[in-house]
Amino acid sequence: MPHEPMPPWIQASDPAPGRTLPLIALLVGVVLAGCRPEHETARALRSACESGNVAACDTLGGRLLRGEYVLQDDMGAARLFERACTADVGTSCASLGAMVQRGNRAAKPDSTRALELFRKGCERNAMDGCERLGELYEKGAGLPRDVARAAVLFRQACDGDEMKGCARLGALHVKGEGVAQDIPAAASLFQRACSDSVSLGCLGLGRLHAAGAGVAKNDSAAFTLFERACEAKEGEGCFEMGRAYEEGRGALQNFDRAADLYDGACEGSDVAEACARLASLYDRGAGVHPDTVRATRLRAQACRLGHRESCPPPKATGT
């Protein structure tokens, strides 16, 4: 197979930029020993990819990224996604875009390149690409903010069974941004996403149950949904679970547990209100030892993260 130039976004620390195939044998790492059917499938994918089957390269790249029956190899995954994306495999474009967006030892962070890859993936029917492109439009990250366009992309992703798209579209329906405010529609979208184990869907549905909006008010159901979101490492879910413990809604009041959850959501996920509520617990000595210095630091952190109530009042100007 002819030499493949190293894409410019790949980290210069690539240990063997001049090797391609039998690059595949190298970047696959080593297919784990054994005779299980999954290992044979991995070997078959490697062989098919080496023979020019770009769909097999896409699948094998995903396995390398996850370390699924092969040794995990981000660099190898990135190379395979690049090859398949160049051959118009949309899912590879979206997967590569996600790697480039966050950056790692295999790919330099490049928001412009990520945007291009998500757009290319979406145009080639990769619903994950549509959902991620919608996120960029919603946030105005790398392009003008356009929530209506984001809603269209989330709907496209949701209709294509990308459940994160359903959850994000539900959140827009709650706020009435880019789409009409429609709480029952939001509840349905959240339920669909949560049933597919998407933490954002569980979080959104839990908040509706806590508020009694679009669904029956049910603190116990809300708590269970927040717990599911938190277990999936969703910081907002951990915050909501902590608030339920603090207020005794859906669970017995437990300040110790609330403090632990707020701490994780504040320090680990940058949830502004979690920092603010943890500061309040330190002021009161509820679940933690009183510590005004720590409380002050947490309020400053909450303010930096956008919690306006935690910010000091503006200094009066002289007249």
Radius of gyration (CA) equals 23 Å
Q: Helix fraction? A: 55-70%
Name the CATH class of the domain at 1-117: Mainly Alpha
Summed over residues and divided by their number, the pLDDT gives a mean of 89
Q: Superfamily at the CATH H level of the domain at 1-117?
A: Tetratricopeptide repeat domain
Structure, described:
With 319 residues, the chain is an all-alpha fold. Among the domains are: 1-117, Serine Threonine Protein Phosphatase 5, Tetratricopeptide repeat; 233-311, Tetratricopeptide repeat domain (Serine Threonine Protein Phosphatase 5, Tetratricopeptide repeat, Alpha Horseshoe), CATH 1.25.40.10. It contains 16 helices and no strands. It has helices at residues 23-27, 37-50, 54-66, 74-86, 90-102, 111-123, 127-139, 147-159, 163-175, 183-195, 199-211, 219-231, 235-247, 255-269, 272-284, 292-304. α2 (37-50) crosses α3, α9 packs antiparallel against α10 and α13 runs antiparallel to α14. The longest helix is centred in the last third of the chain and has 15 residues, at 255-269. It is globular, with a radius of gyration of 23 Å. Residues 1-6 and 12-33 have low confidence and may be disordered.
